[in-house]
Amino acid sequence: MTDFFGKKVLVLGLARSGMAAVKLLLKLGAEVTVSESKSLDKIEELPWLQENGVRVTNQTADIFEEDFYMAVKNPGINGKLWFVKRLRERGIPVITEIELAFTVSAPQHYIAITGSNGKTTTATLTYEIIKAQYPEKTLLCGNIGIALCEMVLEYDLIKNEGFYIVLEVSNFQLVDIVKFRPETAVIINLSADHLDFMGSEDAYYSSKMRVYENMCGEDVLLYNLDDELISEYEKKFPVGCKKLTYSLSEPSADLYADTENVYYMGEKLFPVSDIKVVGRHNVQNVLVGVGCALKNGVSPEKIREAVSSFRGVEHRIEFVREKDGIRYYNDSKGTNVDATVIALRAFSSPVILLAGGHEKGLDLSPLKSLLHGVKKVISYGECGERIYKELTECTGILVNDLPEALSEAVKIAVSGDVILLSPTTSSYDQYTCFEERGEHFKSLVNSL
Q: Residue 269: helix, strand or coil by DSSP?
């Protein structure tokens, strides 16, 4: 374990992961400085930080000329920003809190789940399956909203080993790993996202492949045979560990599901009817969860029980209510185009699609082939006008915000229709996060 006692460490940005890193570093005896873009009077945690000997500053140039043993960066801070570049120019390592937590912890069983879509559903399902076998030793954290550093502190993972830690990891977290090495990992799928942050599709896809760069020997990468982009990028970044293949179309895969059953090595595990979450994409997510569980010693009986009791996660094609024969679904976590494609494919009924939010510049064309099943697209927010013009060719409805979008949808909906919030993009133009957007949508629907 790296010795942090007495070492000067800079934490870039607070939020939940930054505060978790600060608390862990203090436990390790480090001298901590926090650099925040907010003015000091806007930092709610300031009294606690100062009481615990943490120096808090703004992002002024002089801070980044000081000597630090290491910097721990909030994953939401772009590594291309001048102060991050300056730290690296000066030879100061810049990592994220996942790398910090991994570095100081005793040996654990890490299961890392990344991809463009389905991470939260798959990570949650995987956690539920593995927890069925190891109820006292299974944890869920990462990009799902709980920092790994928090788990290190809560369960004293510096001393206690052998936990099964299911980690949802984003490309923001992967770009700054050094030694992070999961025993089990998966890239569920690849589609364009976060181009505003990464700069190009190639940079985004390449960052995802880093999840397995330190894996070797008996480590296992679950490998999606149905995703051509994964195959393309695996040629650039060869896998150095074992593979466990899965597919919805190739019966020779190690894990395979047709429309009737789920199979492992050609043997039936359980019927597809046991899967309660909607959509063929969720069958694929189940294959991932099953593969991760089998790799970590979970019995087939426990797997089937957990799969059959799983009802999905909040904000991901989440059923809200039915009123007057109209069903309302919250897919606020649909923060890229491919996520919305997946959501639309989950329904056979006519859909009124509510889409819009922060402008990320994503290509909308993959949605056009699905418009035959969409009764109307109602767009709103920062990228609402582009959706209205490019996707619907001005045949949709353009409004200012989500409440107006829902109001227009209710006016044209009839019994049998689905009103689906699946924004295609992030929420930052009008909300602080996709959870806030989803909660607002649900409150609006439930007040109808």
A: strand
* Terminal-residue alpha carbon distance, the chain: 55
Q: Which amino acid is at 42?
A: K
CA distance linking residue 71 with residue 10, whole number of Å: 5
Let me know: does 117 contact 280? Beta carbons within 8 Å.
no
Q: Which amino acid is at 92?
A: I
Q: pLDDT class for 64, splitting at 50, 70, 90?
A: very high
Q: How far is CA 138 from CA 113, 155, 234, 275, in A?
A: 15, 11, 30, 22
12 three-state secondary structure: strand
Query: pTM for this one?
Result: 0.79
Structure tokens at 336: 């890229």
Return the amino acid letter for 41.
D
Q: Are strands 109-114 and 184-187 parallel, antiparallel or unpaired?
A: parallel
User: Residue 79 is inside which H or E element, if any?
Assistant: none
Nearest to 188 by CA among 302, 112, 128: 112
Q: What are the backbone dihedrals phi and psi of residue 2, each rounded to the nearest 5 degrees, phi first?
A: -65, 135
Residue 73, H or E segment: strand 70-73
In the numeric block, which tokens belong to residue 376?
């109307």
Task: State CA 177 to chain mean position distance.
Answer: 16
User: Residue 312 to residues 124, 164, 255, 434: CA-CA distances in angstroms?
Assistant: 8, 21, 21, 17
For residue 320, give the amino acid letter.
Answer: V
Question: Do 284 and 308 meet the contact criterion of CB atoms below 8 Å apart?
Answer: no
> How far apart are the C-alpha atoms of 169 and 111, rounded to whole Å?
10
Closest CA to 402 of 435, 441, 375: 441
**Position of tokens 């949508």?**
441
Distances 140 to 22, 112, 163 between C-alpha atoms, Å: 20, 10, 11
For 142, the 3-state DSSP assignment is strand
Q: What are the tens digits of pLDDT across the range 190-235?
A: 876 555 555 588 888 898 999 999 999 999 999 999 999 999 999 9
Q: Contact, 350 vs 417, CB < 8 A?
A: yes
